[in-house]
TrEMBL record:
Pfam families: BSH_RND, HH_MFP_RND, RND-MFP_C. Residues 135-162 form a coiled coil. Residues 59-195 form the Multidrug resistance protein MdtA-like barrel-sandwich hybrid domain. Residues 282-341 form the Multidrug resistance protein MdtA-like C-terminal permuted SH3 domain. Its main location: other. Signal peptide: none annotated. One of its GO terms (cellular component) is efflux pump complex. Keywords: Coiled coil, Transport. InterPro entries: MdtA-like_BSH (IPR058625), MdtA-like_C (IPR058627), MdtA-like_HH (IPR058624), RND_pump_MFP (IPR006143). SUPFAM superfamilies: HlyD-like secretion proteins (SSF111369). Belongs to the membrane fusion protein (MFP) (TC 8.A.1) family. Residues 98-166 form the Multidrug resistance protein MdtA-like alpha-helical hairpin domain. This is RND family efflux transporter protein.
């Protein structure tokens, strides 16, 4: 009886095990949304804020030191070439001119005297009334007086130049955009007094982060719009790209030449829409990106066995709503764009009824 009882228990357990095996059913495929990878043309762009500046700017400064006696213009003043915009105290220079003029008059008198003496000795020499040595001495004294006269003339010209340097004149037609002197201030020679924005061509100037240049130089054509009215856009060409990087800001200065007649005054804030050369790559939406050991990856769908695998990728550029893949994905690969958070390696999936 005991053996029959054990046999019954064993048969019951076998039946229960068979029922459990029949109850195990494979899980349904995970529903995902996919996109077929395809090569596409992408173009890096950037919108940079800048301002309108004069193409030619001049730093105006006195050529001599002194105390500022008068300042005739201020920031925003429009000046003409040759206009006196500031003056220094010229008492010292006036005295130098007076001394030089007196020295010149003295030298002129000496030359006249020596000329008469030379002419007289020459007449006497012709009549053999004086020896040759007296004539030679008179000639030497005349030449020396003439040299002194030339030196006096040069000294007077130098003194008059120094006097003229006490007046600071505009070098060209333009607008004063900055000043750094005031009446009563003592300035040194070559110290910047005013900044003059010359009339004429204008540039839109932008400081662009150096990362934008990783793909090479931007396209020459730039769309420029004023911040105050984006509808007034113009297209202009890049005129100059700075060959050096601003070490503090990490930017490169770009100057865009505005067309003649562009009605934007100096200092107008503008936005420049820069574009890099177009390139070929695989562009995927941000929802497709995943992570594999801390590196960017995507879920690749194997259409043959309808399963997924995680692939590491190299991202060339992250953009506002998508990213560009440079390696790890080939054209026509099926990439999961939605539902990837719940996937495991080798998991069966179904997508859009395919």
């Amino acid at each position: 009886m005991q053996s029959y009882r054990l046999l019954g228990i064993a048969l019951a357990c076998a039946c229960l095990g068979a029922c459990e095996d029949k109850a195990e059913v494979a899980p349904p495929p995970q529903q995902v949304r996919v996109v077929a990878a395809a090569e596409a043309q992408y173009q890096q762009g950037a919108e940079i804020t800048g301002e309108v500046k004069a193409r030619v700017q001049s730093e105006l400064s006195f050529r001599v030191s002194g105390r500022v006696l008068e300042r005739k213009v201020d920031v925003g003043s429009h000046v003409r070439a040759g206009d006196v915009i500031a003056r220094l105290n010229d008492t010292e220079q006036q005295a130098d001119v007076s001394v030089a003029r007196a020295a010149l008059e003295s030298a002129q008198a000496v030359v006249r005297q020596k000329t008469l003496a030379f002419e007289r000795s020459r007449s006497l020499l012709r009549s053999q009334a004086v020896p040759r040595a007296i004539f030679d001495d008179a000639q030497k004294e005349l030449l020396s007086a003439q040299a002194s006269l030339e030196g006096a003339e040069a000294a007077l010209a130098t003194a008059e130049d120094a006097l003229s340097y006490t007046e600071l004149k505009s070098a060209a037609d333009g607008i004063i955009t900055a000043r750094s002197i005031e009446a009563g201030q003592v300035v040194s020679a070559a110290q910047s007094a005013f900044t003059l924005a010359n009339d004429g061509p204008r540039d839109a100037v932008f400081d662009v982060f150096e990362a934008f240049f990783l793909d090479g130089q931007p396209l020459k054509d730039v769309e420029v719009v004023p911040v105050s009215d984006p509808s007034l856009n113009v297209h202009a060409a890049i005129r100059e790209v700075s060959p050096v990087i601003d070490a503090k800001a990490g930017t490169i200065r770009i100057k865009v030449g505005l067309q003649k007649g562009t009605p934007w005054p100096l200092g107008t804030p503008v936005v420049g829409k820069l574009r890099a050369s177009p390139r070929e790559g695989i562009v995927l939406p941000y929802t497709a990106i995943a992570s594999a050991e801390g590196e960017p990856a995507v879920w690749f769908v194997n259409a043959r066995n309808q399963s997924v695998s995680l692939r590491k990728i190299s991202v060339g550029r992250y953009r506002q709503s998508d990213f560009v893949v440079t390696s790890g994905v080939a054209p026509h690969d099926l990439i999961v764009t939605e539902g990837g958070k719940f996937l495991k390696e080798g998991q069966a999936v179904a997508w859009d009824g395919k």
